[in-house]
Amino acid sequence: MVMFSLADLRCDEETDEVGADEPYVLLTAVDLTSSVAVGGFPVPLPTCEVVLYGPFNDVDEDERRAATFSPFSAGRITKPDDAMFVVSLMENDNGDANALRGIVKGGAVSSLFGSMALSRAERVQRLIADVDSAMGVPTGAPNFDDKVGVQELSFTADELTRARAGELVSRGMSIAGDGGRYSLRFAATPDIWGAIREKWIGLGAHSGPVGVPRGVETPTFDGAGRATPFAGGTISWHPNTGAHAVWGEINARWLAIGREQFGYPITDESDANGGGRYNDFKAIHLGGTPIASIYWTPQTGAREVYGAIRDAWLRSDGSGGRLGFPVDVEHDSEGGRVQNFQRGSIRWTPAGGAVIR
């Protein structure tokens, strides 16, 4: 399963318009492998979506703008001939970009139904022509949006294979017209879905703290949860905790100590009292479902704290209290356990419980 999206665009040469450009991009994406059941038999019925990116306001020459994530996902795309992508670049002049998106989609759907008997190459050319025609429909007054250009976007079989395996695959193109020229960069990545997808988009998608997906969603150790790896972290989900993100050094430490077996994340990484960062985790599979944490600062690194020592530490205001952040992990000491903090330690024994020292 592969997901396609615009990553960014760059103005190489401004158009002939007065003032800075306000470009927007329409990605017409067609999945040729989709079908519907008629009388118990699958009948090919391509699905089509038109995704709007922008308008990007006040774009000057040599300026690059990242796109807000808005993907097209194709579940069974395995080879280039399984899909068609047409990219349209417009210059906004009081027109309605979203209205034009609807017009272009209508033209694309009509094109697909009218070209069922043609070869794929002929269908692509027909789609480009019909999308180009739809782009000329006025959606505002007194000025109309101007076409910069339209062309096909394609990925190779090798690129699709690499994207499904977890690699971020980029494909660039240059579109010129109306006196201007733009460079566009598109991305193909593994598809993600459900609560993990919603969390990822809520964090800023590929421009957020976990970055781009680096693999597909897989079951967790107990079979009850799901997790997806990303370039900068992990999003883990359990029906009792929801989807939460772990990234950076906290993620590295969490992975090293057992990931969901240490506990499912029940918070995203957040600011800690005293200037650091933390995540809380819940061990769903253990009796009492205990909660543990991993705290991080640049000076102390990422350290886990749990059990009775964590309880005593939190009662003394945790990282914002007199002990500060943990500087090592809990370990054996004199018939009990001890953990050191920036300004003291907590020792636990079966007889005496957790005592701050």
Structure description:
The radius of gyration is 26 Å and the shape is elongated. The N and C termini lie far apart (55 Å). Helix 1 packs antiparallel against helix 2 (120-135). The chain is an alpha+beta fold and 357 residues long. Strands 1, 6, 7, 10 and 11 form a 5-stranded antiparallel beta sheet that branches. Strands 16, 17, 18, 19 and 20 form a 5-stranded antiparallel beta sheet that branches. The protein is built from 6 helices and 24 strands. Helices cover 19% and strands 39% of the residues. The chain folds into 3 domains: 2-190, C2 domain (Immunoglobulin-like, Sandwich), CATH 2.60.40.150; 195-300, no CATH class; 306-357. The mean pLDDT is 91.
Top CATH class of the largest domain: Mainly Beta
Helix content: 10-25%
Proportion of β residues?
35-45%
What would CATH call the homologous superfamily of the largest domain? C2 domain
Element order, helices and strands? EEEEEEEEHHEHEEHEEEEHEEEEEHEEEE
Number of strands: 24
Number of helices: 6
Mean model confidence by pLDDT? 91
Outline of this structure?
It contains six helices and 24 strands. It is α+β, with helices and mostly antiparallel strands.
Secondary structure topology:
Elements: E1 2-13, E2 23-31, E3 35-38, E4 41-44, E5 47-53, E6 64-66, E7 72-74, E8 83-91, H1 97-114, H2 120-135, E9 146-153, H3 157-164, E10 169-177, E11 180-190, H4 194-202, E12 218-219, E13 226-229, E14 233-238, E15 242-247, H5 248-256, E16 264-265, E17 270-271, E18 277-282, E19 291-297, E20 301-305, H6 307-315, E21 331-333, E22 336-341, E23 344-349, E24 353-356
Antiparallel strand pairs: 1-6, 1-7, 1-11, 2-5, 2-8, 3-4, 8-9, 10-11, 12-13, 13-14, 14-15, 16-18, 17-18, 18-19, 19-20, 21-22, 22-23, 23-24
Helix pairs in contact: 1-2
